[in-house]
From TrEMBL:
A Pfam match: AIRS_C
Function recorded in the entry: Catalyzes the ATP-dependent phosphorylation of thiamine-monophosphate (TMP) to form thiamine-pyrophosphate (TPP), the active form of vitamin B1.
Domain PurM-like N-terminal residues, every copy: 31-145
Gene (UniProt): thiL
Assigned protein family: Belongs to the thiamine-monophosphate kinase family.
Binding locations of Mg(2+) 2: D50, D79
MF annotations from Gene Ontology: ATP binding; magnesium ion binding; thiamine-phosphate kinase activity
Alphabetically ordered keywords of this record: ATP-binding, Kinase, Magnesium, Metal-binding, Nucleotide-binding, Thiamine biosynthesis, Transferase
Gene3D superfamilies found in the cross-reference section: PurM-like C-terminal domain, PurM-like, N-terminal domain
Catalytic activity as recorded in UniProt: thiamine phosphate + ATP = thiamine diphosphate + ADP
Listed name of the protein: Thiamine-monophosphate kinase
Lineage, top ranks: Bacteria, Pseudomonadati, Thermodesulfobacteriota, Syntrophobacteria, Syntrophobacterales
Binding annotation for Mg(2+) 4: D33, T48, D79
Length: 340
């Protein structure tokens, strides 16, 4: 069997079977977006890494090196944010062709430095390598979190409501405009959704505030799509969830692009991915307090989009008419080896 048939997440599980059990100082190991390590101090150490591969994650003609630099930092910071942590130190590895312009590297580091500084962290090292094909930018990020503020995927409980910050689907709408430049939409709408795709922002402050409430049971960032990332929470927590499509926060700009592209904005919101919003579960009795505090302290809204219904691992999309679809069998969001 080839990995294209196997899929990304089955491959991760298979890799895990070849590794010994984690030592006692590993709080969370392989299988999550962030490793959590007990380094015998007052805080846990967080470790994550992510790569941007040319013609898989980005098209060089459609983005600037500066935008790419910002994005590679933001997507890693987003993983730290979803744990309630603070980013600290980054290592960057570049695999470049010999004909890559020095100005590309200059722009890339200008973007990375701006984004890492805004997150309160620093780039402290890395590696350079030549490559014969598409370029690769890989970033590893270390951070910290107090044990009492750590939020993982595996704490969702039956009866929890499912919430998400901000809006969904705009990154996918931006990608649609990049891939189909002949589409004509109002400049303001086009600029907004393209920016959400090319230079996403991590909900770092929001993640720390949510963690500080002590009321969040499970959390992940929306990188693979709401269906995919809620599926990760459900599998880790051994629970089943339902999403209410009419409650998904979709902006007028996303709706407009979908209309012009003759696509379904709800589907973009469910499985488009790369929105980097925070997806979390909480006791319904605490939701008004959580929403009020988040908006008061950050200006960011959050929306109830579903609930945890009981034991299981499936994610259902349930409309007001009672119709449902089972998305629990296999990935419903981005999968590197099944995509396309």
């Amino acid at each position: 069997m080839r990995i294209g048939e196997f899929g990304e997440f089955e491959l991760i599980r298979r890799i895990g079977t070849f590794l010994p059990g984690p030592p006692g100082d590993v709080v969370v190991g392989i299988g999550d977006d962030v490793a959590v390590l007990n380094v015998s101090g007052p805080e846990y150490l967080l470790a994550t890494c992510d790569a941007q591969v040319e013609n898989i994650h980005f098209i060089r003609a459609a983005t600037t090196p500066y935008q790419l630099g910002r994005k590679i930092v933001a997507i890693n910071v987003s993983d730290i944010a979803a744990c309630g942590g603070r980013p600290k130190w980054a290592l960057v590895s570049l695999a470049l062709t010999p004909d890559t312009g020095v100005d590309f590297v200059d722009g890339l580091y200008a973007g990375m430095q701006e984004e890492i500084h805004a997150a309160g962290a620093s780039i402290v090292g890395g590696n350079l390598s030549g490559i014969r094909g598409e370029i690769v930018i890989d970033l590893s990020l270390l951070g910290t979190v107090s044990p009492e503020c750590l939020i993982l995927r595996n704490g969702a409980r039956s009866g929890d409501l499912v919430l998400v910050t901000g809006t969904l689907g705009e990154s996918r709408a931006g990608l649609e405009l990049i891939l189909r430049p002949e589409l004509e939409v109002e400049q303001e709408a086009g600029d907004r959704v393209r920016a959400r795709h090319l230079t996403p922002g991590a909900r770092l402050r929001e993640g720390r505030i949510l963690a500080a409430t002590g009321s969040i049971h499970a959390m992940a960032d929306v990188s693979d799509g709401v269906l995919g990332d809620l599926g990760h929470i459900c599998r880790a927590s051994e629970v089943q969830a339902e999403i209410w499509p009419e409650s998904l926060p979709i902006s007028p700009e996303c709706l407009r692009v979908a209309e012009v592209a003759r696509c379904d904005a709800v589907q973009w919101a469910l499985s488009g991915g790369e929105d980097y919003e925070l997806l979390f579960t909480a006791d319904p009795r605490r939701v008004p307090e959580i929403r009020g505090r988040l908006e008061a302290e950050t200006g960011t809204s959050c929306h109830v989009i579903g609930r945890i219904t009981g034991k299981g691992e499936a994610v259902l999309v349930r409309s007001r008419e009672g119709m449902s679809s089972d998305y629990g069998r296999g990935p419903a969001g981005w999968d590197h080896f099944r995509a396309g």
